[in-house]
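Entry — protein

Goal — fold tokens:
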Amino acid sequence: MPLPDLSEYVLQRSTENATFEGTAVPGLRADFYHRTDGERVASVGRYSYAGADLLMAWGYTDEEHCRHNAVVDSRGGWHPAGDGCPAVELVRAAGPGAPVIGLRVRAPGGTWVTAGASAPA
């Protein structure tokens, strides 16, 4: 399945230090795009970290969750798109309640992509 062509969409809003599950993620930017598709509105969320693409999720604004997603690969391209929303985890400095220092996103094939710092061992 091809990724959405963002040139066909209009940027609706951008958020710096975007939130995930109610927690701000320093360095995460979320850009939200819309376009009319018949009587519906198609939507794409493009997420980047420190200026590098991380994730795209898309579907329709009248749907509760994403219909499809794609995660960036280690070469700067994209893993193949998958159905639904990706698995996403916050990366914390150390233990529950510690400051958020990054984000991990699982591509549909199971590969985890980490943006930001890795959790201490």
Notes: The mean pLDDT is 90. The first strand starts at residue 10 and ends at 15. The chain has one domain: 6-116.
